[in-house]
Amino acid sequence: SSPGLSMLHWTIAVFGEENYLDYWKKLEPNLLSVTNGWSAAYGMFTKGEVPIVLSYVTSPAYHLEYEKTERYRTAVFQDGHYRQIEFAGILKGTKRIKRAREFIDFMLSEKFQNAIPLTNWMFPVIQHQPLPDSFRIAPHPKSTPQLNPARVNQQNSKWLKEWSRTMSQ
């Protein structure tokens, strides 16, 4: 899942390539389940099958908005949170460059950005965009350690293999 991969990247950004597997070795005895994706893990959590789940800092806002409960909370990590960025781009060589630019402009519009919080449950790309009241319980991480995207592209397969090998021991 993208949150799981983001957590792997977070551990590498925070602990370094030399030490990130040590973090996972220490964490592993406390893991009750590793699922194939976020939906399965979050479903187990909301059914009470597991006491904690890796999710988004905005997940509690969803529950407040639709279930009117503040039962769910976000753990704020001292070392920050990895920022998951969803993006759109224009493919090189597209025959519809004008339409593609119009679509990107639309996605950056106030109207579209106002819809993001309650439809995709993430913060809008435009900072200082007004947020729904339910987002008052969604913390804004003070730190977002990141890896160089070129490095991620280059090393991601290796990191995943190392993580998988470590977690299966």
Write up this protein.
The longest helix has 19 residues. The protein is 47% helix and 0% strand. It has 169 residues and is mostly helical. The chain has one domain: 3-Layer(aba) Sandwich (D-Maltodextrin-Binding Protein, domain 2), CATH 3.40.190.10.
Key descriptive features of the protein:
mainly alpha, single chain, D-Maltodextrin-Binding Protein, domain 2, 169 residues
Structural class of the secondary structure composition? Answer: mainly alpha
Proportion of helical residues: 40-55%
What value does the Rg take, in angstroms? 18 Å
Distance separating the two termini:
21 Å
Q: Into which percentage range does the β-strand content fall?
A: under 5%
Mean pLDDT metric: 92
Inertia-based shape: globular
Number of E-type strands: 0
Summary, kept brief:
The protein is mainly α and 169 residues long. It is built from seven helices and no strands.
Task: Write the topology of this structure.
Layout: H1 2-15, H2 20-27, H3 38-46, H4 59-67, H5 97-107, H6 110-119, H7 149-167
Helix pairs in contact: 1-2
